[in-house]
UniProtKB/TrEMBL annotation:
One of its GO terms (biological process) is adaptive immune response. CDD domains: IgV_TCR_alpha. Keywords: Adaptive immunity, Immunity, Immunoglobulin domain, Receptor, Signal, T cell receptor. It comes from Muntiacus muntjak (Barking deer). PANTHER family: T CELL RECEPTOR ALPHA VARIABLE 6-4-RELATED (PTHR19367:SF43), T-CELL RECEPTOR ALPHA CHAIN V REGION (PTHR19367). One of its GO terms (cellular component) is T cell receptor complex. This is Ig-like domain-containing protein. Residues 1-20 form the signal peptide. InterPro entries: Ig-like_dom, Ig-like_dom_sf, Ig-like_fold, Ig_sub, Ig_V-set, TCR_variable_region. Residues 5-126 form the Ig-like domain. The keyword Signal applies. Gene3D superfamilies: Immunoglobulins (2.60.40.10).
Length: 126
């Protein structure tokens, strides 16, 4: 992926659902200036209380866990990113106050069903 110096690129692709549970992110690619705040939306649909995850995949590398939350209202944070498990809005939005060029990557929102032990996810590229 190529980008101009000082710019951060975000890309998203919805991947589907598993056993009636699903995760949805906004579609498309977003390019923003360094130092700008960024929010990557993620909502989920499930009958229970799943574990929620954000994975990041940097160019030329495999996906790696960025952060997770395993219970309602828990906030996960790592490398300046944070996401709060919000059961009222069924959301787990990923936020960073000041995006850097080094944050350019693909971001995946995923859920793990604690009952059936299945997983589903959606992808977002920053």
């Amino acid at each position: 992926m190529s980008s101009s110096p000082g710019l951060v690129t975000v890309i998203l692709l919805v991947l589907g659902q598993t056993h009636g549970n699903s995760v949805t992110q906004m579609d498309g690619q977003v390019t923003l200036s360094e130092g700008t705040s960024v929010t990557i939306n993620c909502t989920y649909s499930t009958t229970g209380y799943p574990f929620l995850f954000w994975y990041v995949q940097y160019p030329g590398e495999g996906p790696q866990l960025l952060l997770k939350a395993t219970k309602a209202n828990e906030k996960g944070s790592h490398k300046g990113f944070e996401a709060t498990y919000n059961t009222e809005t069924t959301s787990f939005h990923l936020e960073k106050a000041s995006a850097q060029e080094s944050d350019s990557a693909v971001y995946y929102c995923a859920l793990g069903d604690t009952v059936t032990e299945t997983a589903g996810g959606a992808e977002h590229k920053l």
